[in-house]
Amino acid sequence: MVGQSLYHTFKRYRTLQTHRISALPIVILMPHSACNCRCVMCDIWKDNKNLKQLTEADISGLLASLKQLDTIQVLMSGGEALLNANFFILCRILKNVGIKVTLLTTGLSIKSHAAQLLVLVDDLIVSLDGDEALHDAIRNIPNAFRKLKEGVEHIKRINPAYRITGRTVIHRLNYRNWPAIIAESKKMGLNQVSFLPADVSSHAFNRQQAWTEPKQDEILIPEHELPELNEVINYLLTEYAVDFDNGFIAESREKIRNIYHYYAAFYGLNAFPYKKCNAPWVSTVVEADGAVRPCFFMESMGNIRDAALGDILNSAEAVEFRKSLDTLTHPTCVKCVCSLNLSPLANLN
User: Fold this and answer.
1) What is the distance between the alpha carbons of residues 330 and 321, in angstroms, rounded to a whole number?
2) Residue range 288-317, pLDDT digits in tens
3) What is the pLDDT at residue 41?
4) Which helix (H) or strand (E) holds 28?
5) Angle at CA 98, nearest 5°, toward 87 and 20?
6) 57 with 80: CB under 8 angstroms?
7) Sign of CA dihedral 7, 9, 14, 20
8) Per residue in 249-293, pLDDT tens?
9) Do residues 196 and 189 touch, judged by C-beta distance below 8 A?
10) What is the pTM of this model?
11) Are 172 and 225 in contact (CB under 8 A)?
12) What are the strands of the beta sheet with 164-170, ordered from one edge?
């Protein structure tokens, strides 16, 4: 086992050096294209009628590549993954070969699925947008907060050690509610809460076209409100020092401060915050129709229904893409809101 671990680390170093994927520790799957929320900062739900989903055959077909590439963790994203009627069958296929499964979810149905989640999913990441009234308004779903809270509390009663974390997109509609979000996350028993700014400029999240005014302005924090955003962040850094220190707030103080700088950059007040990212070298995204992307925000490079994942990722075009990609200057990377930088030494087990 020690030898395997060292070999995996070596393969991750080799990937970064050669741009050819030898080890792929993280794979993001989108089992279902539809969503059960209608969030104001996301367009996924607008295409719910055009259903796409991953099948048992799709996941079984991935296993050879996942084994070859030493995949450790699969993140089930979406859309809402739990809308796939065979979701737990897909999880069992992965668990049976020793792959860790994490679910990113709206949380609306986790109570009804609690028994299977506790067995077949290693941990949950739930979306939290504000206190009850604001969360429901942003999600555009009645009782969304109540269902999320009841689900988290139900699972925690069954297994208090089960890890459930929260993720919040901070934007124009909820930045003033930031302290309440932290308070609510503690009340419902989340282990940790994470914050990131809203993506308002890419084609991700089912946007047929990148947002422009006035749609962008619904989410983008206005320039005249930036001083207030700064005040809120200063308050957080002072009043929640313990939560930064003990890791309840996942981000460092610098990353929270950079949420201000991200929004300020849209008005030319500063550069977009520096981000060190190696996502295309350590992870990939497989969408509900089988399309493979180097990350959420980059163009598709193939489809698992046409070729093996390993062959797609190590095609001449894919290798050349990584070799030529400068994440410090690429226009998509510069404005990215959820970069990933995974060290070859990072342990995902």
Assistant:
1) 12
2) 999 999 998 899 999 999 999 999 999 999
3) 58
4) strand 26-29
5) 95
6) no
7) positive
8) 999 999 999 999 999 999 999 999 998 999 999 999 999 999 999
9) no
10) 0.92
11) yes
12) 192-197, 164-170, 123-127, 100-105, 73-76, 26-29, 283-286, 291-293, 302-303
Cβ pair 296, 338 in contact under 8 A? yes
Q: Which of 197, 210, 207 is nearest to 339 (CA)?
A: 197
Burial of residue 268 (CB within 10 Å: 0-12, 13-18, 19+) is exposed
Q: Which residue's structure tokens are 């799957």?
A: 29
Cβ atoms of residues 267 and 223 within 8 Å: yes
Q: Does the pLDDT value for residue 1 go beyond 60? A: no
Residue 198: both structure tokens together: 């809203």
**What pLDDT score was predicted for residue 38?**
61
pLDDT beyond 80 at 216: no
Burial 317-329 (b: 16+ CB within 10 A, else e): ebeebbeebebee
Per-residue pLDDT at 200: 82
Q: Sign of the C-alpha dihedral, residues 337, 343, 347, 349?
A: positive
Distances (CA, A) of 97 to 94, 115, 318, 340: 6, 21, 27, 25
Task: Give the residue among 140, 272, 268, 135 at the shortest CA–CA distance from 199.
Answer: 272
Burial of 242 (0-12, 13-18, 19+ CB in 10 A): exposed
pLDDT score, position 211: 44
Compute the C-alpha angle 132/232/153, nearest 5°: 30
Position 7: which residue type?
Answer: Y
Q: What is the mean pLDDT of residues 208-226?
A: 72
